[in-house]
Amino acid sequence: MTKEIELYAKKALKALPKFLRHDTIVAETIKCALFQWVWENKLIPIPNYKPPHRSEEPLALVALNNKGEIIYGFAIAPVITLRGIKALKAIEAKAKYFITFSSLKKKVEESRFFLDPEVIHLHIEN
Prior knowledge:
Strand content: 15-25%
Helix content: 25-40%
Radius of gyration: 14 Å
Structural class: alpha/beta
């Protein structure tokens, strides 16, 4: 499944012209690719999900089943952030992903310090 998500994101990013590859655009493009993947897997994609009664920043996307349960949670940023990890930890989900895309591999590796064992890290070469 992780490989499938990676392929969707890479395919979407490949279509982006180089001059448009700014962090915000890259993050939103990955979110759109995830939305499509979630939809095609017969789940309900919910962008910018913020857990009720929580102060964490919203997650980029969550995938719900037809009972309204969160199956997947996704945080997206150039590098792993503590805020993103906290937002992922605030939800109950089958799988939680933190997707990074910075071209500065050293920064991404250093940011892995924030990772939690329940969070799957996926780095997309951009």
